Amino acid sequence: MSTILIENGTLVTVNEKGExxxxxxxxxxxxxxxxxxxxxxxxKYKKADQIIDANFMAVMPGMVNAHT
Length: 68
What we know:
Largest sheet: 5 strands, mixed
Number of domains: 1
Number of strands: 5
Number of helices: 0
CATH topology: Urease, subunit C, domain 1
CATH class: Mainly Beta
Strand content: over 45%
Shape: globular
Structural class: mainly beta
CATH architecture: Roll
């Protein structure tokens, strides 16, 4: 199982409420986002295969060009 933790970034959720988390984390398992939350990542996620420190960065969904 491949796991990725993106932590410490400003998360732009683009959800129904338009929430922005000034400091949060995203945990990804097998290419699927399993958790997005505000605050520090739980210690169980600190053992991820890859850990990305997104401090001073914005993390947001990618845009897809549907016109091509």
